[in-house]
Amino acid sequence: MPAAERTVQISGSTVIVRPTAEAASQVAADAIAEIIHAAVNERGKAVLGLATGATPEVVYAKLVAKHEAGGLSFQKVVTYNLDEYYPIQPLDPRSYRAYMHRLLFSRVDLPANQAHLLDGTVPEAFAPEHAAQFDRWIEADGGLDLQLLGIGRNGHIGFNEPSDASVADFAAAPTRLVELHPVTKGDAVREFGAHENVISHALTMGVKSILSARAVVMLATGPRKAAIVAQALRGPVASTVPASLLQTIAERVVWILDEPAAAELGA
């Protein structure tokens, strides 16, 4: 029986395994806080790419606790969220803007004009320009110091869904409007209540910006993620498994897993 708490190297990436999702989330929160402190000390600000969904919820709670304890300020933090359903109103409780406000933004000292999310209300004809502008904002801020990721059961990162594109083309994908994969829509029923209510499109940060981050923290928890985690870490690099492209920047990626999510790694 493998030890419940361990750190190993797989395909060039550091993989940290903790016995529970709570413990794994604590490791992720500690890593984010450390990067914030280091980036602020080094260049006066920290630029974070943030994820949504069920997996990061505990991470945000732990970051809020650090802030409330006086050990973490967001005054010099700039954030860019990975994605947003499209179309959706920002006040819709299912929107990722509402999610971020509820779980983090309203609970820390992050200035409003330093928190950036893709806009689910932009007219469709202008979505490409809005997406390109989002990429320009990230570039103007000097790129991402950290990208926090979750992994979909189909291997998606952000809403970069499995693709038949070449690895080179997929790795260069910009922020854009996409159609959600059937697996993703099925998993979103938890948020939308019924399959017919799930919004079928989303704006997503592109693979290019994700892979350009100076550090990537991938957090995956629960037994439903075990198979895709093993495929992304140990399988070939392929656009059909978007998270496998993290192998191309393995030295900048830390995978943080609970024991159930690590179950099929054999390490």
Written overview of the protein:
The protein is an alpha/beta fold. The mean pLDDT is 97. Helix content is 33%, strand content 19%. It starts with 5 loop residues before the first strand and ends in a 9-residue tail after the last strand. The strands form two sheets. An eight-stranded mixed sheet has the order 1-2-11-10-7-3-4-6, sandwiched between helices. The protein has a three-stranded antiparallel sheet with strand order 5-9-8. Helix 1 packs across helix 2. Strand 10, helix 9 and strand 11 form a beta-alpha-beta unit. The protein is globular.
Number of strands: 11
Adjacency order of strands in the biggest sheet: 1-2-11-10-7-3-4-6
The low-pLDDT segments are: none
Sheet having the most strands:
8 strands, mixed
Nearest-integer average pLDDT: 97
Instruction: Bin the strand percentage.
Output: 15-25%
- By DSSP (H or I, 4+ residues per run), the number of helices equals 9
What does the radius of gyration come to? 17 Å
Q: What would you call the shape?
A: globular
Distance between the termini: 10 Å
Written as H for each helix and E for each strand, in order along the chain, the element string is EEHEHEEHEHEHEHHEHEHE
Class by alpha and beta content: alpha/beta
Helix-residue proportion: 25-40%
Summarize it.
The chain is of the alpha/beta class.
What brief labels describe this structure?
single chain; 267 residues; alpha/beta; eight-stranded mixed β-sheet; three-stranded antiparallel β-sheet; 9 helices; 11 strands; 33% helix; 19% strand
